[in-house]
Structure prediction request, 140 residues.
Amino acid sequence: MSVLSDVELKVLRGTANGETYAETASRIFITEKSVSNVATRVMRKLDAKSMPHAVHLAYQAGLFRRERHGDHAGFAAHRYRDEEPCEACWAGERAYRAEQRQKRRQEAVSGPQGAQEAARGARDGRGAATAPEASRRRAA
Prediction:
């Protein structure tokens, strides 16, 4: 399998992202006909039957990574690779952190479930006192 040039990788990435040749051409500032010619070159280099097949082969060869974007896992993956997270991942991380803060606030207001049960003197299914309540009764 031959190494792909920068332009060839951009065209292949455009196909992987579902772009038309016209959209790819405007994104990388070349003509649509040039994108078509580059796509043909990519298919030849990867020995692919179509551009979707070329995308599949590129993933198999490790030319592309399957990445998550826009959530906490995508943010963490960027950090793991020592990369600056993309804007979508920053937004996902902010939403994740806000959700975690909200959960902590709710726990602080209502208290952890186990602590509430212990404070009320939880009982098992038969009506007998659980260990914390029984030990309090013995101490009294």
Q: What stands out?
A: The two ends are 80 Å apart (CA to CA). The chain has a mean pLDDT of 83. The first helix runs from residue 6 to 16. Helices lie at 6-16, 21-28, 32-46, 51-61, 72-80, 87-110, 113-120, 131-139.
